[in-house]
Amino acid sequence: MNINLDKTIRAMAVALDLAQISSVKNATIVEDISNVNFSKHNYLNHSKRTTYIALKLGEHFNLSEITMQKLYITALLHDIGAANSLKESHISNTFVIEHCKKGSEIIKDFPVYSNISPLILFHHENFDGSGAMGLKGDEIPFVSQLIRLSDLVELLYSEKSPSHVQKNSIIEWVKSNSNSIFSQELVDGFLYIAEIDIFWFDIENISFMDFILDNISPKLGISLDLFQFEKIAYILASIIDNKSAFTAKHSRGIADLAYMVSKHVGYSDEKCLQMKIAGLLHDIGKLAIPNSILDKNGSLTEDEFSIIKSHVYFTKVILDRIEDIREISDWASNHHEKLNGNGYPRKLDAPKLSEECRIMCVCDIYQALTEDRPYRSGLNSHRALAILDGMIDDGLICNDALNKLKTTLVENGFI
Questions:
Q1: Distance from chain centroid for Cα 47
Q2: Residue 2: strand, helix, or coil
Q3: pLDDT tens digit string along 344-398?
Q4: 3-class secondary structure per residue, 294-350
Q5: Comparing C-alpha atoms, which of 333, 393, 398, 394 is closest to residue 362?
């Protein structure tokens, strides 16, 4: 099975932007940069727009093909460490160093281009040495410098007004930080590309025209095998489960259950691994849900439950961007559907739910019931299975899938 690396990274960038949106709403402290407050920024296209700006700068400086590839991947994933500090925004002064270090560590496990780790580590450095880790001038990797400027320009940009209204103020702000946040060379490069009208037209329209970034992106020409994609799934699962105290090991637990049940059923080795990956990624959409709702210790309001239900929608939105894993996307995103058609988000009924989806559903419920939560201890296996038996009586879940789970638990010594 071959999985397109470019589409995988783009999907990861969407997930990270959704995470930023859900977290920045609760941020009260912002990085003090020339008295600019970024707390009201809409992060939906942050990675995409930052990457476009960085690549235009890279073109201007005539960077080599391999450096452009590193710039592209680093720009798309530059905030991967911020998603582990979701209770406050990545722009909080308290978390700047932490998220740079976390991002650098996370990306070391990336199956390809792991040598971009230092580029992410230093993407908040200022040219004059006043940045998060005190590097100065040429001590800062040039790619990190490009991303620093691109990141801040994107944060200054507002989708609420046309680009021609704000471009002069952005240009003046960049010029005012020459030889402080940015080198004069970098400022001059930005001033050059900022004089070209199409640059601002692209900035303004990149949210709904994917071909804008496609046209400038370097060709990676790399496909991941399923084992490499599994490593990326583990990275994302860690980010998901670290988002909330309520989901500490949830994704990994479901992945392990789904894998064991798949082995018991007799699926091929490849399909068993696909089911594990679906388990790891089934809650990736929770990155879009505010922690104030995920961590609520009590009953949800009707509005809050509607927001919670959207997480499976976002799971499918993110994973469907990777065209090579459509089955994994379906198995991952249908885990809240019910046989009677009263599940969510698509109200699929029994004829439309595959065996794999049914297995994922019972694994999810069992794992949720048996794991500890801050407000309660996990149930024992017998109590959890009794609840699942009741759900069969109500026509919600599949009896055959539950029996396969029960047999697997017995075979593996869990009950």
A1: 11
A2: coil
A3: 999 999 999 999 999 999 999 999 999 987 677 889 999 999 999 999 999 999 9
A4: HCCCCCCCHHHHHHHHHHHHHHHHHHCCCHHHHHHHHHHHCCCCCCECCCCCCCCEH
A5: 398
Q: What is the pLDDT of residue 36?
A: 60
CA distance 336 to 128: 52
Phi, then psi, of 340 in degrees rounded to 5: -85, 5
Peptide bond into 345 cis (omega under 30): yes
Q: What backbone torsions phi and psi does residue 377 show, to the nearest 5 degrees?
A: -85, 155
- Residue 89 is predicted with a pLDDT of 45
Give the integer Cα–Cα distance in Å for 74 and 383: 47
Q: How many CB atoms lie within 10 A of CB 180?
A: 14
Cα–Cα distance, 245 to 234 (Å, whole number):
18
Note whether 157 and 56 are within 8 A (CB): no
Q: What is the DSSP letter of 245?
A: G
Q: What is the signed CA dihedral for 353, 356, 358, 363, rounded to 10 degrees?
A: -150
Tell me the two tokens of residue 389. Answer: 């038996």
331: phi then psi, degrees, rounded to nearest 5: -60, -40
DSSP state of 80: T
Q: What's the pLDDT score for residue 84?
A: 54
Task: Report CA 52 to chain centroid distance, whole Å.
Answer: 19
Q: Give the tokens for residue 12.
A: 């990861």
Residues of the chain with pLDDT below 70 are: 23-42, 83-95, 245, 248, 374
Whole-Å CA distances, 28 to 19, 47, 90, 247, 275: 16, 22, 11, 24, 40
